[in-house]
Design brief:
heterodimer, A: mainly alpha, 41% helix, B: 437 residues, mainly beta, 22-stranded antiparallel β-barrel, 4 helices, 64% strand, globular, disordered C terminus
Chain lengths: 147, 437
């Protein structure tokens, strides 16, 4: 076994052991699903007055959802299946997210309209914004033209 | 062969309720039939099937399984692409503990651990510890579509965070990824969420290249409000291209050419500052004014993207309009953009119209205006079964006339539909009890 693989296995097993046996908190876990049915865009502050009130899905929520997801993915999981995230954040995808939801124009979807030309502009503006989805692991489409 | 394996796997997963009727199974099937044309006039007709499922109570309440993926097949022969392909986007077994939010995911997982994320075949675990601490770890083989095989590829990492509920969460994370047994990514991350008062939130991430020992990127956001009808958002980010794109340029420059330093100036540092003002009157109208300034250190110029939008959300009618101006240091980064949409629900049917127009300051391929107009007609047979037909016309620098169409079938399922598994409907706001964490 290679040194890197061995070290990964050892570290991972060590952390798993920590997870299972050591120092776990005793409070009750979050429910698997939100205990009340939520219809439409959720307004969490209707019921919650603590930090969860910040999760109101209002018009500007899309601009900061990545920060919440980075820290509280399990809260997102209360209402959203992983496929909800994968519609936009997939490592391999052929259909533009906006093409899947032509009947939901109010939703903020990346690459709406003519994106073949627009991607050249966005790439010059800030290629770092393309990179998380298209750079490391899903570069096949890029390489069709960028050889 | 790979696509056949994916199709077989999805078929097997879909057959689970037949062979294991005691399970709670829910999910959604989405079928898309699209028709579109390539620039050389070749018309493509791909058929897509997206399927996601979740099964609970796999022997015990603490165990569940989730999977999702898609499969595509061209109904006509195609020299442009493979006849069929697909992707298993995620498929993992979850074991939960009833306390401490502890879980272990095993399989193909998407990991979000603070500032760092990865998709991998392996395992991810997290738990809350005593004293407000949370610890998470993950490891496995990273997903990629590159053709250099997955031999010698590995990724692992973890995060530790501390929280005071409703006040702050601060975490630090580490990720190391190897490609062909060589270091590919070695990153450290900081994630912050602070809510010092009820009307102010500060949040953001910082990423550090642990290989070159320099910052890659900072991204921070402040949300203020609401103050009566008003909310204010402030954003800032700074990205060092040399560090941010270092991984693909140090080991795979020939493979990752879209982001190679032959296309991107490695010395460039871009700083974005901006924000938005949101006016939500409590009625059906929402107004947004937004502004972003991108400042380039090497190019020695800046690009400003600014404008505004208004949205109307009624019971059965919705509409929106947006106007934006891009004003960059070079003429190819200067244009005006407008968008108008409207959707109307009539009983079980709904109609949507959406138009996007971009007017370039300087013609591209002899074209000064790009148009895209789409119309969609939807009909919901039941709350779980729906059909949508849409058509799109576009005229842009790449197409004199591009006509596309798509037929979408959606079907959600939830088996068995037990009374205990269905969440209770939310009571009206005035009767809901305030809760705290």
């Amino acid at each position: 076994m290679r040194t890197s693989t061995r070290s990964f296995v050892l570290i991972f097993i060590g952390l798993i052991v920590t997870v299972v046996f050591v120092a776990c908190a005793t409070h009750q876990s979050l429910a698997k699903k939100h205990p009340m049915e939520v219809q439409g865009m959720p307004v969490c502050s209707t019921c919650h007055t603590d930090g969860r009130a910040a999760l109101d899905h209002n018009a500007d929520y899309i601009t900061r959802h990545k920060f919440y997801a980075a820290q509280q993915q399990r809260t997102c999981d209360l209402c959203h299946a992983p496929s909800f995230c994968a519609d936009c954040h997939a490592h391999k995808e052929e259909l533009k997210p906006s093409d899947k939801y032509k009947d939901a124009p109010q939703r903020s979807m990346p690459h709406r309209g003519d994106y073949l030309n627009q991607h050249k502009i966005d790439g010059k503006l800030n290629p770092a914004s393309c990179f998380p989805c298209h750079g490391r692991q899903n570069n096949e489409r890029c390489k069709t033209c960028h050889r | 062969m790979r696509s056949l394996r994916i199709a077989a796997s999805l078929s097997l997963l879909f057959s689970l309720p037949v062979t294991a009727s005691a399970l709670d199974l829910s999910g959604q099937s989405r079928t898309y039939l699209q028709t579109r044309e390539l620039t050389d006039g070749t018309r493509l007709t791909p058929l897509y099937e997206y399927l996601n499922i979740r099964t609970d109570n796999l022997g015990m309440d603490a165990v569940s399984f989730s999977a999702g993926g898609w499969y595509r097949y061209y109904l006509q022969s195609s020299d442009f692409d493979d006849k069929s392909t697909g992707d298993l986007q995620y498929a993992y077994l979850t074991i939960r503990k009833p306390s401490s939010n502890a879980y272990l995911n095993i399989g193909r997982v998407l990991v979000n651990e603070g500032a760092l994320s990865s998709q991998l075949d392996g395992a991810a675990a997290r738990t809350d510890l005593r004293g407000g601490f949370t610890i998470g770890a993950f490891g496995g083989s990273p997903l990629e579509t590159e053709q250099d095989t997955r031999s010698g590829d590995s990724v692992y990492g973890g995060r530790i965070a501390h929280s005071v509920a409703g006040v702050y969460t601060i975490g630090v994370a580490y990720l190391q990824e190897k490609n062909d047994s060589k270091d590919f990514r070695k990153e450290e991350g900081l994630d912050v969420w602070i809510r010092p008062v009820s009307k102010l939130e500060l949040m953001g991430t910082s990423n550090y290249n642990a290989e070159s020992k320099n910052w890659m990127q900072h991204q921070y956001h402040a949300a203020l409000g609401p103050f009566a009808w008003l909310r204010l958002n402030l954003d800032t980010s700074k990205t060092w291209y040399k560090e941010y794109f270092a991984s693909v340029n140090s080991t795979q420059s020939t493979l990752m050419s879209a982001f190679s330093f032959t296309n991107i100036d490695p010395n460039e540092v871009v700083t974005m500052t901006g924000g938005s003002v949101v006016v939500a009157t409590g009625g059906p109208f929402t107004f947004v004014v937004d502004y972003r300034n991108y400042d380039y250190q090497v190019l020695n110029g800046s690009t400003i993207y600014s404008g505004g939008s208004v949205a109307y959300t009624g019971k059965d009618l919705g509409a929106g309009a947006a106007l934006h101006r891009m004003n960059g240091p070079t003429v190819d980064l200067r244009y005006d953009e407008q968008r108008l949409y409207v959707f109307k629900k009539i009983a079980k049917a709904d109609v949507t119209l959406d138009v996007v127009h971009v007017a370039y300051d300087q013609a591209i391929n002899g074209v000064e205006d790009a148009w895209s107009a789409s119309a969609a007609f939807g009909y919901s047979f039941t709350p779980k079964a729906r059909i949508v037909a849409d058509a799109e016309y576009a005229k842009n620098p790449d197409y004199n006339s591009d006509v596309r169409g798509m037929l979408t079938l959606l079907y959600s399922f939830d088996l068995p539909q037990t009374k205990t598994s269905a969440p209770k409907p939310a009571p009206k706001p005035q009767t809901q009890k305030k809760t705290t964490r």
